[in-house]
Amino acid sequence: MARKKYIESVSAIHLICCGLDIHKDKICACLIYEKGNEVDIELKEFTAFTNDLIRLRDWLFEHECPVVAMESTGVYWRSVHNILEGYVQVVLVNARHYKNVPKRKTDIGDSQWLAELLRHGLVKGRFIPPHQVATPLKSSLVHLYNLTTASLTCLAL
Q1: Mean pLDDT, to the nearest integer, of 144-148?
Q2: pLDDT digits (tens, 9 = 90+) for 88-106
Q3: Cα dihedral sign for 45, 51, 54, 59?
Q4: Which of 23, 97, 108, 127 is surrounded by the fewest CB atoms within 10 Å?
Q5: CA angle at 123 for the pair 121 and 124, rounded to the nearest 5°
């Protein structure tokens, strides 16, 4: 765990926030929070297993973090989102919107950059339907696909 201090030149929108750089095996997290008049940065790595994702959620709760930003590359964000959904606000960010910055080539650097952008309100999140909407919608789409496939099979005969 590493801690750093820095001086701000732009006003903050979120006083406490976290940036997550998500990969298949690990999650790099950067938590930015105010402690008195100082701004602290705490960096941590977690594995992608459920127990560690719960540790991530508890760590965010411990620091009273209300909002988390993570990139939407691939499907690896989904398990993290499922654990955090309903506990913190999750902002899912398109990697193209923040990756075109030089010297941000490390996982920790990406998570810190994402946290700083979130802190100052400079990231735009994608729409993620709530679980109550997504599950019935997915099952309806699967059913529609099965019906369409069966219809095309009958027509081919």
Answers
A1: 85
A2: 999 998 876 666 655 556 7
A3: negative
A4: 127
A5: 115
- pLDDT at 12 (0 to 100): 80
> Which token pair is 1?
């765990």
Length of the chain: 157
**Cβ proximity of 30 and 112 under 8 Å:** yes
Q: What is the pLDDT of residues 3-44, one digit of tens each?
A: 666 555 667 888 999 999 998 999 999 999 888 788 899 999
- Do the Cβ atoms of 28 and 80 come closer than 8 Å? no
Residues 39 and 5 sit within 8 Å (Cβ to Cβ): yes
Report CA dihedral (106, 24, 85, 2) to the nearest 10 degrees.
Answer: -40
DSSP sequence for the chain: -EEEE---SS--S-SEEEEEEE-SSEEEEEEEEEETTEEEEEEEEEESSHHHHHHHHHHHHHTT--EEEEE--SSTHHHHHHHHTTTSEEEEE-GGGT--STT--SHHHHHHHHHHHHHTT---BPP---HHHHHHHHHHHHHHHHHHHHHHHHHH-
Residue 64 φ/ψ region, left for φ over 0, alpha for ψ in the -120 to 50 degree band, beta for the rest: left
